[in-house]
Design brief:
Blueprint lengths: L11 E2 L2 E2 L26 H5 L22 H5 L6 E7 L4 H11 L2 H15 L7 E4 L4 H7 L3 H13 L8 E3 L11 H7 L4 E3 L8 E9 L3 H12 L4 E9 L2
Parallel strand pairs: 3-8, 4-7, 7-8
Antiparallel strand pairs: 1-2, 5-6
Helix pairs in contact: 3-4, 4-6
């Protein structure tokens, strides 16, 4: 089963300055610029304002009083068995996520990944994590995959194997943000392929930054189920209501 290679860099921990050197670089809030707190690059006020998700549908992560399945998922069960969203897409997560996704702000990614570890440590542990991939052309333009930047520290902290490269995006689909829900589904039809090699584990969790309509995660889940995966969950940083 494929995994990732962890190469240590002298004087660094997880790609960041080692702890003894942190005093040289005072923590600074990435959302407002004030002094950081809680050993993170967030001030006390922005940390308190984090929009942790409350009761939500377990199949689509949309807010639901009491946290039971929503009517839409009861009527037409989605291909995801469980969706865990750490945040609602609101301040300050809605500032940090675009900084990671579009501007290569890996400090923002580090803060978000730390929050994901906190929130997901009690979730049902999958056999492996799979970051939702970018198409190769978009990856070349951007230079990094934001889902992988979140999945890598998450896998390391929770000691879950990371299978990067197993799920591939085979078509260069248009930007999802410009499409409505129905067009997003058409845009992603047949967009993913699974390179299983020696086979996949029975339970995996897809990792992505933001879930909007769920079209991307559903398309990836269908490809994984066709490859023989029995249970597919999704772990996302934020859910757009």
């Amino acid at each position: 089963m494929a995994g990732t290679v962890n190469r240590s860099i002298p004087g660094k921990v997880d790609g960041c300055p080692a702890a003894p050197l942190r005093w040289l670089f005072p923590l600074r809030c990435l959302a407002c610029g004030e002094a950081g707190a809680h050993r993170r690059d967030l001030c006390a006020a922005c940390h308190a304002a984090l929009p942790w998700q409350g009761p939500a549908c377990p199949r689509c992560a949309l807010p639901v009083p009491g946290g039971g399945p929503c009517a839409a998922c009861l009527a037409a069960p989605p291909p995801l068995d469980r969706v865990h969203a750490v945040f609602d897409y609101a301040f300050p997560a809605d500032r940090l996520l675009p900084r990671l996704k579009f501007h290569g702000d890996f400090a923002a990614g580090r803060v978000l990944a730390q929050c994901m570890v906190d929130a997901l440590s009690a979730a049902d542990r999958p056999d492996a994590l799979l970051p939702v991939p970018l198409h190769a052309a978009r990856l070349r333009r951007r230079g990094y995959d934001q889902a992988l930047e979140l999945a890598r520290p998450l896998a390391r902290a929770l000691q879950v194997p990371l299978l990067a490269g197993v799920l591939r995006r085979t078509r260069a689909t248009g930007a999802q943000s410009r499409l409505d829900a129905e067009a997003r589904q058409r845009n992603l039809r047949g967009a993913f392929r699974v390179d299983a090699g020696d086979g996949l584990p029975g339970h995996v969790a897809l990792v992505d930054d933001v879930m909007t309509t769920g079209a991307t995660l559903h398309a990836a889940a269908r490809a994984l189920r066709a490859a023989g995966v029995r249970r597919v969950d999704a772990w996302v940083c934020a859910r757009v209501a």
